[in-house]
Specification:
This protein has helices spanning about 1-35, 55-80, 95-120, 125-130, 150-160, 160-165, 170-190, 210-220, 230-235, 245-255. The chain has about 270 residues and is an all-alpha fold. It has one domain (about 1-195). Helix 3 (about 95-120) crosses helix 7. It is globular. The protein starts with a helix and ends in a 13-residue tail after the last helix.
């Protein structure tokens, strides 16, 4: 009896954490940019129009299903960890703080690679039609699109967690930090506003980091810009849109000038 209660409480805790994180990140960014400061930051809006309300509701609906699926997979990983089946360890000083932070970097690099190739695979026509098309219903995405997946895509997306858990020695808090960072990058990638300065996408160092414009172009144009955190795989595999840097700079110029430029940023892509 007590075991069942404990398991139920564990399940509720995991679900609560997933829901609260999603609402905190997506809700705060949406309220700030789309409600509170919408006029101030309007010129930073990549696509100069707001998404329809029905699309926003659709993003939230699919995200709710995704969170339930994420919760189920995470609970399975937790169970495996309690039974000594994962690479989890405690305390932190077992491997030291250098490895602790290194493990987070390894998770991010692994996830970036995992995301790029699973993402490209889901653009294979049969998979796109039945799995990935749901996410691309958000042509003009908002932060709520971060988790707006078909159930099968949700399983693929959360697959990085068991992959990490079973292959990389990790402290549980390291996975938590990784997950929060991943959610932050996911939300800002779907923000719909460009906040980085002009030249960022062409800078010798910063060009390797992705921007909101980069992923926004993917939602609009579909067959380009597949990366998540970094721009390494897109550059290596030549899947960046050829006008990515130009589009980025046009959007930033519009934001800095505070007025619509003579050439529309979206015209660059036509």
């Amino acid at each position: 009896m007590f075991s069942s209660i404990a398991n139920s409480l564990e399940s509720l805790k995991v679900l609560f954490n997933l829901v609260s994180r999603y609402l905190l990140f997506t809700g705060s960014f949406y309220l700030f940019f789309y409600v509170w400061k919408n006029k101030k930051y309007w010129m930073a809006k990549i696509q100069q129009r707001y998404p329809e309300r029905k699309h926003i509701f659709n993003e939230i609906k699919h995200s709710a299903i995704t969170i339930l699926i994420f919760g189920l997979i995470v609970l399975m990983v937790i169970w495996a960890g309690k039974n000594g089946l994962t690479q989890a360890y405690e305390p932190i000083n077992k491997y030291g703080y250098f490895y602790y932070f290194l493990s987070i970097v390894l998770m991010i690099v692994l996830h970036d690679t995992y995301f790029y190739w699973t993402h490209r695979a889901m653009h294979w026509k049969p998979l796109f039609k039945w799995v990935h098309k749901t996410h691309h219903l958000s042509v003009n995405p908002t932060p709520f699109a971060a988790y707006a997946f078909h159930p099968l895509e949700a399983v693929i997306e959360v697959g990085i967690i068991p992959l990490i858990a079973f292959t990389i020695p990790h402290h549980p808090s390291a996975i938590t930090i990784f997950s929060l960072y991943s959610l932050l990058l996911n939300v800002t990638g779907h923000l719909g506003y460009e906040l980085f300065p002009k030249g960022f996408a062409e800078h010798w160092l910063f060009k390797w980091h992705n921007t909101s414009t980069h992923h926004n172009m993917h939602h609009r144009l579909v067959k380009c810009n597949y990366g998540l955190y970094f721009n390494f795989w897109d550059r290596l595999m030549k899947t960046n849109h050829p006008h990515y840097e130009a589009h980025f700079n046009e959007v930033v110029e519009r934001r800095q000038q505070g007025k619509t430029p003579s050439v529309s940023p979206e015209a660059v892509l036509e």
